[in-house]
Design goal:
Layout (H helix, E strand, L loop, with lengths): L2 H42 L12 E7 L2 E6 L7 E5 L11 E2 L4 E2 L9 E5 L4 E4 L6 E5 L5 E5 L3 E3 L1 E6 L5 E4 L5 E3 L4 E4 L3 E9 L2 E10 L24 H18 L4 H14 L13 H4 L35 E4 L4 E4 L4 H11 L22 E4 L2 H4 L9 E4 L5 E8 L3 E8 L5 E8 L3 H4 L2 E4 L1 H4 L10
Parallel strand pairs: 9-16
Antiparallel strand pairs: 1-2, 2-5, 3-4, 3-6, 6-7, 8-11, 10-14, 12-15, 13-14, 15-16, 17-18, 19-24, 20-21, 20-24, 21-22, 22-23
Helix pairs in contact: 2-3, 3-5
């Protein structure tokens, strides 16, 4: 190797050493700055430092019309809103997120949760895979009329596309995106919903043995029950549905008694005739003639085994037989006290087979607090659905209140005049005392309200 090449190699080595020293100094500087930045991060931000906006929500839940948020810390104050559509920044319903709570109240099912800072929306649950869904787990089987509906789940918050729904027979019943099951035609199907690794199933039985409750009041156009309209199997199923309806709102509760009266008048497709009773179990051992003091409906001859004694029967509801008080044949049904006592018995209250009162014997006016009904009392909130109303008509008449709104009382009763049969009559609050001089307040008798609603 000549001297010229040796000198060249020495220069290259010096050059590489200088470059290596620069690289080492650069790496050292980067490491030093990183340590300084980490030190500042731990002092001023730590592990609670702000995160990207789209990761602000860890989870959310729903309790008492409030969204309970689990959020990560953010550098700015947060505001939340529940809205069907993307809200504007100046929407007056934005509420401050405090202690992870979003107090934005709502009353309908499908909502999206939005979170904003002062200047922009930073979160929308419609883009979030997490879904909050409130499933009605109280029932594993439901009974629907054709066009009847049931809320299987509701209060959807988040991306509803992550909910997986299956239906074994969509021709029997359908289910909407917001969890409303609707009866289509008679039959049975099973509907399941999966979300967040959970699955819920419900059996749906759709039948034409019942109808959807009319929203405007009693349907006076529906016909009277005909003799032998139903088979034993039909009668058994109607009894099953009645029991389910009562258990849903509360057996041995005020709501249960109201539901029994509503079911016979609103969901049963035919009107039960008024029958002038031939007697009572408690007085002369006459059963099922103008009265039927047993659990369930009296639609088929298979129910004759329940009858303890008869005068001109036994005959099921809708079948003609002789009425001793009326001195003629009438389709069997219920009189006023027979209907009310039947409703109470089916709800779990055994008042015995008694009349409307007033009498020396026990009667329906003895089971609650008897009050003279004034207009002031009628317009107050002291009277509730499930309370009884009494008048002197025909020696004593009784009805049960099954609905109350701002202006009217809806009274279920068996009538022998005008609109004959077991019906619901609407009375203005101001004029109720002219029809019923007395009200029987039943709080002490029922003891519990159950899932009580003023209207159906």
């Amino acid at each position: 190797m000549n001297m010229k090449n040796i000198k060249k190699n020495k220069k290259l080595k010096k050059k590489y050493r200088r470059l290596l020293r620069k690289i080492i100094r650069f790496i050292f500087l980067v490491c030093f700055l990183s340590i300084i930045l980490l030190f500042l991060y731990l002092i001023f931000g730590g592990f609670n430092a702000p995160v990207k906006d789209e990761r602000i929500v860890k989870s959310f839940n729903y309790e008492d019309n409030k969204i309970i948020l689990k959020t990560r810390k953010h550098e700015k104050e947060l505001y939340c809103i529940l809205s069907e559509n993307t809200p504007t920044l100046d929407n007056e319903n934005w509420t401050l997120v405090e202690n992870n709570e979003c107090n934005s109240k709502f009353d309908i099912n499908n909502y999206k949760l939005y979170i904003k800072t002062d200047d922009k929306i930073i979160y929308s649950s419609e883009n979030d895979k997490a879904v909050y869904l409130e499933v009605n787990e109280n029932k594993n089987k439901i009974y629907l009329a054709i066009n009847g509906t049931y809320n299987f789940y509701n209060k959807i918050i988040g991306n509803s596309k992550s909910i997986k729904v299956s239906n074994t027979n969509s021709e029997i019943a359908s289910i909407s995106d917001n969890g409303i099951i609707k009866g289509i035609k008679p039959g049975t199907t099973t509907i399941s919903v999966k979300y967040n690794k959970k699955e819920y199933k419900i059996e749906v039985l759709v039948t034409n043995l019942i109808t959807v409750k009319p929203t405007g009041g009693y349907d006076y156009k529906k016909g009277y029950l005909a003799c032998n309209k139903y088979s034993k199997e039909d009668n058994d199923l109607i009894d099953e549905i009645l029991k389910d309806r009562i258990n849903t709102v509360g057996y041995k509760t005020r709501a249960g008694a109201v539901e029994a009266a509503r079911f016979l008048t609103l969901e049963f497709p035919y009107r039960i005739n008024y029958f002038y009773e031939n007697g009572r179990q408690t007085t002369n051992n006459v059963d099922g003639e103008g009265r039927y003091y047993h659990v369930g409906f009296y639609l088929d001859s298979s129910r004759y085994k329940n009858i303890t004694g008869s005068s001109t029967g036994p005959k099921a509801w809708g079948c003609s037989m002789y009425s001793n008080p009326a001195h003629r044949n009438i389709d069997n049904g219920l009189d006023c006290s027979g209907f009310v006592s039947w409703a109470l018995l089916n709800a779990g209250f055994d008042v015995k087979d008694v009349g409307a009162g007033f009498s020396d014997n026990s009667d329906l006016t003895d089971f609650g607090e008897l009050k003279s009904l004034t207009t002031t009392l009628a317009k107050s909130d002291k009277i509730k659905v499930g309370d009884l109303l009494h008048s002197y008509a025909a020696g004593g008449h009784i009805g049960i209140i099954v609905g109350i709104d701002s202006n009217y009382y809806y009274v279920a009763q068996a009538l022998w005049y005008d609109e004959i049969g077991v019906v619901i009559t609407k009375y203005k609050k101001s004029s109720l005392p002219s029809s019923f001089p007395h009200v029987i307040l039943m709080d002490k008798y029922y003891k519990e309200d159950g899932n009580l609603t003023n209207m159906w």
